[in-house]
């Protein structure tokens, strides 16, 4: 599956636990990354400062669904399920 241009759900729902350019404390779940552009594209997409976790993410229908709202809901659920007990 190709990433949907203008989605950006993966730039909001999950947390990023490591510091990265512009967000030295990482990114909490549910907080939109400061590098998400107004048209919901990654401002660091081709930049080596892009977090490794973001570069490794591969869009899949099971996660992203067919629209932004589904992707956001699925990614939020995965974030919750991945929390330590």
What this model shows, in words?
The protein is mostly helical. It has one domain. It has three helices and no strands. The longest helix has 14 residues, at 68-81.
Average pLDDT, to the nearest integer?
A: 95
Count the domains: 1
Rg over CA atoms, rounded to whole Å, is 12 Å
Low-confidence sequence ranges: none
> Per the principal axes of the C-alpha atoms, what is the gross shape?
globular
Strand content: under 5%
How many helices in DSSP terms?
3
Would you report the number of β strands?
A: 0
Distance between the termini: 32 Å
Task: Please summarize the sheet with the most strands.
Answer: none
User: What is the chain-wise order of helices and strands?
Assistant: HHH
Protein name: Zinc/iron-chelating domain-containing protein
Summarize the structure.
With 85 residues, the chain is an all-alpha fold.
Give the helices and strands, then pairings.
Layout (H helix, E strand, L loop, with lengths): L51 H5 L4 H4 L3 H14 L4
Which tags fit this structure?
85 residues; mainly alpha; 0% strand
